[in-house]
Amino acid sequence: xxxxxxxxxxxxxxxxxxxxxxxxxxxxxxxxxxxxxxxxxxxxxxxxxxxxxxxxxxxxxxxxxxxxxxxxxxxxxxxxxxxxxxxxxxxxxxxxxxxxxxxxxxxxxxxxxxxxxxxxxxxxxxxxxxxxxxxxxxxxxxxxxxxxxxxxxxxxxxxxxxxxxxxxxxxxxxxxxxxxxxxxxxxxxxxxxxxxxxxxxxxxxxxxxxxxxxxxxxxxxxxxxxxxxxxxxxxxxxxxxxxxxxxxxxxxxxxxxxxxxxxxx
Length: 265
Ligand code: IPD
Ligand code: CA
Ligand code: CA
Prior knowledge:
Shape: globular
Largest sheet: 8 strands, mixed
Bound molecules: D-MYO-inositol-1-phosphate, calcium ion
Strand content: 25-35%
Radius of gyration: 17 Å
CATH architecture of the largest domain: 2-Layer Sandwich
Number of domains: 2
CATH superfamily of the largest domain: Fructose-1,6-Bisphosphatase, subunit A, domain 1
């Protein structure tokens, strides 16, 4: 394993263990509302602290972009961290959440970890070296038609400016695919797409920490990831479409007629 991936895995496991222990006691957690339907708990913050500590102990000069504490440092190496992706699930006792850590070097994603502590699923990738679920190589699915495909997505729930376009895309795909899923943790949705569990995934309005690790997992598993217009702006815009190459192309084709100008970026 690449030494930088090794450190990221150590950080993700430490945070995952902390989250897993805390899941026994969710009724007693201190929870704060960041904005409408956007919650953060002491567990998110503690998990983030342990991740940053672990990464900076190994690489003191590296920079950080983390959901709860923001940006720190200035380096060609930037760790992009979601300490607990799927907080709403976590706070409701629904076992679908993960730790997501990615490394960008000069703007290029090079290492990725998504760790699901309840299933002990560790998804990892190093640029150019493939993607793995635990110790097994992962590949995207081989399905070629939307009618056979299971598509993951995330509903808008904090900001609703893209609601109409989203609903039009959703309605369209609902009728064309074998089914749609909204489990509630974008990093895991992407990891599951990389593992071939879903054939494709799309969502609007995500943040870099939700998707950075998942993007590398997908490409290293042989899939394609883009924004909703098919360009590579997904980390900036947060609008994302992913899947095996055939399903990714078919998703883009179905999405195109519904795109408003802001969703094309
Ligand atoms: C959320 C999850 C969810 C997605 C949201 C994200 P959080 O992350 O990934 O699936 O639909 O947009 O914000 O807030 O639980 O880290
Ligand atoms: Ca998140
Ligand atoms: Ca989070």
